[in-house]
Specification:
Blueprint lengths: L1 E6 L3 E6 L9 H16 L5 E6 L22 H10 L4 E5 L2 E3 L1 H8 L2 E5 L3 E3 L13 H9 L1 H10 L2 E3 H7 L4 E3 L3 H12 L20 H16 L4 H14 L2 H16 L2 H15 L21 E5 L3 H12 L3 E5 L3 H22 L8 E4 L10 E4 L5 H14 L5 E4 L6 H5 L8 E6 L8 E6 L5 H13 L3 E6 L6 H18 L3 H11 L5 H8 L1 H10 L15 E2 L2 E2 L3 H7 L26 H13 L9 H21 L6 H11 L9 H8 L1 H14 L10 H8 L8 H11 L1
Parallel strand pairs: 2-3, 3-4, 4-6, 5-7, 6-9, 10-11, 10-13, 11-12, 13-14, 14-15, 16-17
Antiparallel strand pairs: 1-2, 7-8, 15-16, 18-19
Helix pairs in contact: 1-2, 2-3, 4-5, 4-9, 5-9, 8-9, 9-10, 11-24, 12-13, 17-23, 18-23, 20-21, 23-26
The chain binds ligand LT2ZWINM.
Catalytic activity: (2S,3S)-3-hydroxy-2-methylbutanoyl-CoA = (2E)-2-methylbut-2-enoyl-CoA + H2O; (3E)-hexenoyl-CoA = (2E)-hexenoyl-CoA; (3S)-hydroxyhexadecanedioyl-CoA + NAD(+) = 3-oxohexadecanedioyl-CoA + NADH + H(+); a (3E)-enoyl-CoA = a 4-saturated (2E)-enoyl-CoA
Family: In the C-terminal section; belongs to the 3-hydroxyacyl-CoA dehydrogenase family.
EC number: 1.1.1.35, 4.2.1.17, 5.3.3.8
């Protein structure tokens, strides 16, 4: 809806009303059309101001309408009518002007913004382009290079940057609407021809072809298969080379291909999934809206290795007082230096003062006595963590929430070492912890709703996307990674190369294939885990066949590489070779290829031709299958949790929505059929055996992913 009133005698004030972000739903568009007509037809009205209610101008088109039969007036003619008006129209921008919201403002003759407002055209992040004239007006207003930057990245800008670029005409630190009304009165009656952006010529840019070629190359590289950024470049090119109306035709044409694409659906799903994970719930009935978090003012971090340092930085940057504990004096000094450096660099990037005084350092665990919450980040070793938890339980004040930053160890077991197991949760950060957005908050059967809520809220405060997950080996992300890695190893045994496997995954959209990723994170990490699990014993030990462990097919390839001291980038050799230890540019290693040949010969394996499709199916469907098991086990509340974990923590291409969304797009029948096919070919690999939930979903007619929660509930109640 839009409300109309008259202020200061001769200014028509239009207020967009659609909480919480005044999205341009059909009703709002109709409201704008009606109220603009009313203002223009009122002889008393000399100028018009458009604002949004509750201090929010407009969050853009209503994304919820996209998958529906859209009705109501179209945005393009609506904005065009505003631009063509014979009375000045001023946009009063408070809060946000995003997407269609900014396009609406660009159709106005003037823009007045509050100093705290944020503006942008983020459509590309939803798999779209600014198709309400944004790709045609913005370059005409601020030039091609700046418009390309904003439109292809979907970046939000501050009011100050908007003023500098020329997107807005005035910035105010006070009442925006009052300032806009005053502005409107000051321009009433003045000629408007020079204020209609669509009539501007696009500012000349030297060597346009070279500019677009360069941008297109960069965009293709960073897009990793996403089509919207490319369409955005093409649309801006139309603005630079065609008259406005033809440019608008091109914008429409490009939008039509994007609008119904699977990528747009995936990205819009991801947008809502990101918000859905905030509305967490646990099988015991704890919920986001009924669980009250404990206030956390002082947090402590135990163990200042790479993870602990990153966590301390993230906490301090979120404004908390941090007690950083490292028992080894030398490591403590090194950590202090490293944390200060990270804080200084971060502050410089964000243009703020470094929060150095927020962190105090100690080598004594007793220093955490006053902390409201403690995050243990010592070495991934259960015995060590157990000791730390016993100590924490003894020294912390009553009510302190105790968290473990483990990547997969049993949170419940650690809880059992303390006096208050209900106050123990996992906070699984991803490296580097001050940069990576994902946080898995792991609840055990005894974790109280309050402890979960406290960790979830703290994650939010640190700017993380926090997902509440149940306690199981590897939690969600690493549990699903296991079958994925396993398939990659098996594919090498059967004839693939690391290059082929990585190529398939990178072409799919991962920033790095599984072998490059393993080299980066260090092959010794997984080796240590396999050794602790009794898997990575030297070949032939305990009399078992080399490729069978604990009764299942096993590939010792990773262990054999580690035995050779090949730990990946850190040693300059792994699945690839690097120019030096710590080198980052992977190149193919002839040693590795002859090693694989020798390995196959030794085990009587005959290499066969493996294509990219098989790599994808084996690796991804095994991972997805585990995702179904996780859903079946009730480790997460819905598929959105898994998808967000994979998009934000494991490099799953966002334009493919996440593994569970992807499965739904491929078709559950197809995933089931291919898993059955691969399991038949490899009956000794349990991870390829289709999970019963997948079968049940297929029998229920393969519902789309947004209906799985409901179907899961029904299926569970039938059990
Ligand atoms: C920054 C935000 C706005 C606010 O952030 P925050 O304060 O943290 O709050 P959130 O939790 O994120 O959000 C609060 C709730 O609001 C919901 N929300 C937010 N934005 C929207 C929106 N735009 N629409 C609907 N709902 C929205 C959000 O989901 C929360 O609710 P809930 O918790 O989920 O219940 C932040 O929210 C944000 O960034 N929002 C997105 C901003 C954005 O991306 N805007 C751009 C939208 S796309 C757009 O504007 C496109 C315009 C181009 C014209 C489109 C023309 C369409 C038709 C063309 C058809 C042509 C093809 C024809 C094909 C054929 O021929 O067949």
């Amino acid at each position: 809806m839009a409300q109309y009133s008259r202020v200061s005698g001769s200014v028509g004030l239009i207020t967009l009303q659609n909480p919480p972000v005044n999205a341009l739903s059909a009703a709002v568009r109709q409201g704008i059309v009606d109220t603009v007509k009313r203002a223009l037809g009122d002889p008393e009205v000399k100028a018009v101001v458009i604002r949004g209610q509750n201090g929010v101008f407009c969050g853009g088109a209503d994304i919820k309408e996209f998958g529906t039969n859209m009705s109501g007036p179209h945005l393009v003619p609506m904005i065009h009518a505003i631009e063509a008006a014979n009375k000045p129209v001023v946009a009063a921008i408070e809060g946000i002007a995003l997407g269609g919201g900014l396009e609406l403002a660009l159709g106005c003759h003037y823009r007045v913004a509050h100093s705290k407002a944020r503006l942008g055209l983020p459509e590309v992040t939803l798999g779209l382009l600014p198709a309400a004239g944004g790709t045609q007006r913005l370059p005409r207003l601020i030039g091609v290079p700046a418009a390309l930057d904003l439109i292809t990245k979907g970046r939000h800008i501050t009011a100050a940057e908007a003023l500098q670029l020329g997107v807005v005409d005035q910035v105010t630190g006070h009442g925006t609407v009052d300032a806009a009304v005053k502005f409107a009165l000051s321009v009433a009656g003045k000629p408007l021809d020079a204020r209609r952006i669509s009539t501007y010529p696009c500012p000349r840019t030297s060597d346009l072809d070279a500019l677009f070629e360069g941008v297109m190359q960069k965009v293709r590289q960073s897009a990793r298969g996403a089509i919207a950024p490319i369409a955005c470049v093409q649309a801006v090119r139309a603005a630079a080379t065609l008259p406005y109306l033809q440019g608008m035709e091109r914008e429409k044409e490009l939008m039509a291909t994007l609008f119904t694409s699977g990528q747009a659906r995936a990205l819009q799903y991801s947008f809502f999934a990101q918000r859905a994970v905030g509305r967490w719930s646990t099988p015991s009935g704890a919920r986001w809206d009924t669980s009250k978090p404990r206030p956390v003012h002082i947090a402590a971090v135990i163990g200042l290795g790479t993870m602990g340092r990153g966590i301390a930085v993230a906490l301090a940057q979120a404004g908390l007082s941090v007690i950083a504990v490292e028992t080894q004096e030398k490591q403590l000094m090194e950590a202090k230096q490293a944390v200060s450096g990270m804080l200084e660099r971060g502050a410089k990037r964000r243009g703020v003062a470094p929060a150095l005084d927020k962190v105090s350092y100690s080598h004594d665990i007793k220093a955490v006595a006053d902390a409201d919450l403690v995050i243990e980040a010592v070495f991934e070793d259960m015995a060590l963590k157990r000791t730390v938890f016993r100590q924490l339980s003894a020294v912390c004040k009553p009510g302190t929430v105790l968290c473990t930053n483990t990547s997969g160890l049993d949170v419940e077991h650690l809880a059992s070492q303390t006096r208050n197991p209900q106050l123990v949760v996992g906070m699984h950060f991803f490296a580097p912890a001050h940069v990576m957005k994902l946080l898995e908050v792991v609840y055990g059967p005894q974790s109280s709703p309050q402890a979960v809520a406290t960790a979830m809220q703290l994650g939010k405060k640190m700017g993380k996307v926090s997902v509440a997950v149940g306690n199981c080996r590897g939690f969600v992300g690493n549990r699903m990674l296991k079958p994925y890695l396993e398939q990659a190893f098996f594919l090498l045994e059967e004839g693939a190369t690391p290059e082929l496997v990585d190529r398939a995954l990178e072409e799919f959209g991962f920033p790095m294939g599984v072998f490059k990723m393993s080299d980066l994170s260090g092959l010794d990490v997984g080796w240590r885990v396999r050794k602790a699990d009794g898997l990575a014993e030297p070949v032939g030990a305990s009399g078992q066949p080399a490729r069978i462990r604990q009764g299942q097919r096993y590939s010792p390839l990773g262990d054999l590489l580690c035995e050779q001291g090949r730990f990946g980038q850190k040693t300059g050799r792994g699945w690839y070779q690097y120019d030096k230890s710590g080198g980052q540019v992977a190149s193919s290693d002839p040693w590795l290829h002859s090693f694989l040949e020798g390995y196959r010969a030794m085990h009587g394996l005959v290499a066969r031709r493996i294509d990219l499709q098989e790599v994808l199916e084996r690796c991804l469907y095994a991972l997805i299958n585990e995702g179904f098991r996780i859903l079946e086990d009730g480790i997460v509340a819905g598929p959105e949790d898994i998808d967000i974990i994979y998009v934000f923590g494991y490099g799953w291409p966002r334009h493919r929505g996440g593994p569970m969304f992807y499965a739904s797009m491929v078709g559950l029948e197809r995933v089931l059929e291919r898993l059955e096919h691969h399991h038949k070919a490899h009956p000794d690999v349990p991870h390829l055996q289709p999970c019963s939930l997948l079968r049940r979903l297929v029998s229920s007619g393969s519902p789309p992913v947004h209906r799985w929660r409901e179907v899961l509930k029904k299926l569970n109640s039938q059990l």
